[in-house]
Every structure is written in structure tokens, then in C-alpha cells.
Amino acid sequence: xxxxxxxxxxxxxxxxxxxxxxxxxxxxxxxxxxxxxxxxxxxxxxxxxxxxxxxxxxxxxxxxxxxxxxxxxxxxxxxxxxxxxxxxxxxxxxxxxxxxxxxxxxxxxxxxxxxxxxxxxxxxxxxxxxxxxxxxxxxxxxxxxxxxxxxxxxxxxxxxxxxxxxxxxxxxxxxxxxxxxxxxxxxxxxxxxxxxxxxxxxxxxxxxxxxxxxxxxxxxxxxxxxxxxxxxxxxxxxxxxxxxxxxxxxxxxxxxxxxxxxxxxxxxxxxxxxxxxxxxxxxxxxxxxxxxxxxxxxxxxxxxxxxxxxxxxxxxxxxxxxxxxxxxxxxxxxxxx
Length: 337
Hints:
9 helices; eight-stranded antiparallel sheet; alpha+beta; Arylamine N-acetyltransferase fold; five-stranded antiparallel sheet; globular; 2 domains
């Protein structure tokens, strides 16, 4: 990346990034940057804090596919801000989104804060029973790459759902294991994927293992090639119409240390601990709520009606759909009785 290049302007204003910084509940040590975002530190520690605050405040969800008149997703930055931050622009009744929504939103916030960041397209692997094991598919995912003043480069994926990293991952050829949830470790390696015919062009490959004694497995791959909003507009048409878990109603919220699984029981206060720790995740999958607190996943709640699902969305994720949105799933194949 040419560090002297002219970067794309952010779609969000200083006032909008200030509202976002207040909404994500930064530690109290960051209070001065909330009121003066222009001096936000450009360090790994600050970037890691922003990432963990982002993924624990904005859930991964595909509700727009199921609860909207078009059953499609709009990824224009101004639309994303209204959706994620809510009509009051203070986070009230805000939503989450799927990978392109969350990562494009986060990209523009980082740009407003002065980070040197760009977006790139990602090839996911096909899965069987949730486990990646097939070929790498076309571009259906998105990632952000950040260059810090120190010269370090990091992958920042805030939209891969429950399988995503909870820390920035270094692009440094060493392939160092990074602790994720529980005993799970993740890393990036620089290598070829099996279907490549030009092997002198290596890709970054996101890998995981659920315990240090397990073998590594690969989720996705990407190159350090800048993608633009126009590229993702094309990819989003396919992604929201043909993939995007259309066969599942899915919401995933990462949990910070000290937070309750029930969204309504988490006080809206700043945290004193500078080190934001992600310790688990709450998930809505069709008609059940699952919780993983760093170990085994268990079902904690189930329901068999749309009314039950709407209550679960509010109770566990702080998401309240409008009456119009709630009605648009009627007649859709994923509607409950």
C-alpha cells in the first residue's frame, strides 16, 4: 500500500463518529478521545479496543433478509449508519448487520478517526455442518486492512459472526497463534490455496483450531488488494439474494467480561478496565437461543412463534423490529407459526 496515496474520504462526520464512540462503551481511559476523536491514538492497543467494542455492541445478523419488504440488504454508508445507530443516532433501537454492512460501517468510522485503512474482498470455503472443508468460493465476504504508523499491518474482521477473530491479526508472515474464545486459537498464514495456478502469488489465509493440540483448519483467504464500495455493491446483490444464510435466521452477539447474556441486564456505562475481554457469545439460530461462554455451546431458550422470536431479539440482543418489519416475514419460508 502506498502510504503517500490519497485515501477515500470517510462517509461519516465527526459528530457521527462521536456518537458511535459513545455508543460502543469505550473504557473510561478513552473518554478524552470520545469528545475529541481527532486525537484518537493510532496504536495496536487502541485498534484492538475499537474492534472488541464494535463486535460486542453491533451483532452479526441477517434479519434484513427475512424482515424487510425486499428481502435484500442496502449497504450504502448513510443507510448503514441509520440502521446500526438507530433513528435517534444515539444507538437507541439500533441493529447489527451481516459482514458487508458491519465492515463498511467500521471502515468509515476508522477513516474518520484517521486510520489508514482499506477494504478487501474475501473468499470463504464451503462448509459441511458448519465446518469448513470444501473449495474456496467466489468473493462473498469483506475484510479491513489497517496500516499503523509503526509500520505494522493488521487484518480487522468485524463481520464473520461467531467464527470471527476477536483481535486484530498481524500480517507479518510469522503465522502467530492468537487466543480467541476459550481454548480456540486463530491466525493468518501467507500461503497458496489449492486451486491457485499461479503459485508465486500468495494469499492470506485465516485459520483456526479449537484447542492447541488440534490441527489447524482454514476458513477463508484474501489478498492485499483494495476493493471499493462499487465492488461490494455488486457482491452484495449476489450475497443478499443467494447466500447470506437465507436458510437460517441468525444473530450473534459477542459478550464482554462482566456482561450478562441478557442484553437488558447490561448497564449502559463506561468500563474501567482498559483491556476489553471477549469471553463468549449469544446466538439466535431460527427458534433457539444458544450461549457459548468460551467452552461448550448450550441452548438456553427456545420458542415456536414469531412473537417469541421478537421477544428473544429484544431480550438477548436489544433489537426491536418495527411492526412493519415484523410483518414482512409472513409468508416467507423462515416464518414461525
